[in-house]
UniProtKB/TrEMBL annotation:
High-level lineage: Eukaryota, Viridiplantae, Streptophyta, Embryophyta, Tracheophyta
An annotated GO cellular component: Golgi membrane
Span of the signal peptide: 1-19
InterPro entries noted in UniProt: ERV/ALR_sulphydryl_oxid_sf (IPR036774), ERV/ALR_sulphydryl_oxidase (IPR017905), Sulfhydryl_oxidase (IPR039798), Thioredoxin-like_sf (IPR036249), Thioredoxin_domain (IPR013766)
Protein name, UniProt field: Sulfhydryl oxidase
Length: 505
């Protein structure tokens, strides 16, 4: 069983094998004056999975042959348009996935036949999922896949796109001039795009831990508990799977003895070690861009926003019996692994001020919401005095009245302290970070807990080489109604008779 799930979004650069090897995200530096590719190279092995999982509502597939001189001449024109929509520096990410398929490769022969490729280059346009598991016949009526008959130059192709979308994209559009990012704070549907930012933040946080060698004997238990929390409650299916893969083999790679040795073996818990071979949310994450959390400036929002969304999404998914464990796990994770010292200390102080254990999931979710607003209040003052805030996304007390009018109790004047209806706030948090967050993620198993996912986790638990401090969270997807406490007993009992297993990597 593979350690990671192939998911490929608007990768800036892609290397695709002609065999069974999965596509691997890579960066290609300019060499000998060669310009980088922005379109995504697909082949028969990854065609369906890439188009199925992209968040873009539209896709263009160029069918070409590498020996075709006309195709070689057309490529710079196509790449000029692809630069607007694909990659970390795209002006309008999340709108169109622009891809290419080389029909001259044997592996792609059947794929090109399915789409009735009779000339090169040939461009097809349509919703990405309409390309999955199907084909295209030019005689077919009412097909959502359409041929772009005239796109022979970049100007003509972009003009065709603008006509279809009613847009006015231009080649001089800057990196952050992207109207797909709606700034209407009263629209709760915006959070749906954040599922991709949560994946990005999860992967980025994991990468920081490895790069800075932050996994030590003193932080090991904290990471294990956080991974267990992710396995049980992360809103992304592939992040739950990736976290479980790491958790299964964690004890073999990063045992207390190894970390205490302080030698070369301890480097297994770093980017260069064995743990560096794991991708917590899949091989093509991080992708290098943000959607819901995209700021109007390069150094605003992004990772910190994505991490907050992750924490909120976890807080509304835990059960009452695990609320205090989730709270302590979150506090320890931020204290041990968040590298902004001032923010880390502020969060730790808020955690330390809680003297009574949480007994309800509602209490944890509301505490995190309140803590987030306290952080925003502090940053509002700092950004106002220093001018460092994002003008398009200023820090605000959240949720706004427009987003949740029922969350506010009647106040005497604008300057008085806000009085909250916490019952309504909790309902809002559950809806916003629960149901709405995964609306764009159209995988039914992700939202409903399908049989496939249950089977995967049952197999995982049956054969796992469990970690030293297991709480049983890897079972929580299959038996979501169980609390951490009950699962802990099961996992501990399994350790006594566990069997060695091969790595899933």
């Amino acid at each position: 069983m593979s350690c990671s799930i192939l998911v490929l979004f608007f990768a800036l650069f892609i290397s695709v094998s002609t065999g069974s090897q999965r596509g691997i995200l890579r960066e290609i530096s300019k060499q000998d004056g060669e310009k980088p590719d922005f379109s995504v190279e697909l082949n028969a092995t990854n065609f369906d999975s890439v188009l199925k999982d992209t968040p873009a509502p539209y896709a263009i597939v160029e069918f070409f042959a590498h020996w075709c001189s006309a195709c070689r001449n057309y490529k710079p024109q196509y790449e000029k348009v692809a630069r607007l929509f694909n990659g970390a520096d795209a002006s309008h990410p999340g709108i169109i996935l622009m891809t290419r398929v080389d029909c001259a490769l044997t592996i792609n022969s059947n794929l090109c036949d399915k789409f009735s490729v009779r000339h090169y280059p040939m461009l097809l346009w349509g919703p990405p999922k309409k390309f999955v598991g199907s084909g295209w016949d030019p005689k077919q009526e009412n097909s959502e896949i359409r041929s772009i008959e005239n796109g022979r130059t970049a100007d003509i192709l972009l003009g065709w796109i603008n006509k279809q979308l009613g847009s006015s994209y231009g080649f001089n559009d800057g990196k952050y001039e992207n109207e797909h990012l709606q700034r209407n704070f009263s629209d709760p549907a915006q959070i749906a795009r954040a599922i991709y930012d949560v994946e990005e933040a999860t992967s980025t946080a994991f990468g920081i831990m490895l790069n800075l060698k932050m996994i030590k004997s003193g932080t090991r238990a904290s990471l294990i508990k956080f991974l267990q929390l992710l396995v049980a409650h992360h809103p992304s299916k592939r992040c739950r799977k990736g976290s479980a893969d790491i958790l299964v083999d964690f004890d073999n790679m990063c045992s207390s003895e190894i970390l205490s040795a302080n030698n070369e073996e301890a480097d297994s818990c770093s980017k260069k070690g064995a743990l560096g071979n794991y991708q917590i949310c899949g091989e093509e994450v991080p992708r290098g861009y943000w959607m819901y959390c995209r700021g109007s400036k390069n150094d605003t929002r992004g990772f910190s926003c994505g991490l907050w969304v992750l924490l909120h999404s976890l807080s509304v998914r835990v059960e009452d019996g695990e609320s205090n464990l989730a709270f302590r796990t979150t506090c320890d994770f931020i204290h041990n692994f968040f590298i902004c010292e001032e923010c880390r200390q502020h969060f730790y102080d808020m955690c330390s001020s809680v003297s009574t254990p949480f007994k309800k999931a509602r209490d944890f979710a509301l505490w995190l919401w309140s803590a987030h607003n306290k952080v925003n209040e502090r940053l509002m003052k700092d950004e106002a005095s220093l001018g460092t805030g994002d003008p398009e996304f200023p820090k605000v007390i959240w949720p706004t009245k427009q987003l949740c009018p029922s969350c506010y109790l009647k106040m005497s004047d604008e300057n008085s302290k806000i009085e909250w209806n916490e019952d309504e706030v909790f309902k809002f948090l559950v809806s916003y970070y629960g149901k709405e967050l995964v609306n764009l993620y159209e995988d039914k198993e992700l939202r409903a807990g399908g049989e496939t996912e249950k089977a995967v986790n049952e197999e995982l638990v049956a054969s796992t080489n469990a970690v030293v401090v297991p709480l049983g969270a890897a079972l929580a997807i299959a038996v979501a109604s169980c609390a951490f406490g009950a699962l802990a007993c099961f996992w501990r009992s399994q350790q006594k008779n566990r069997k060695p297993r091969r790595s899933w990597n």
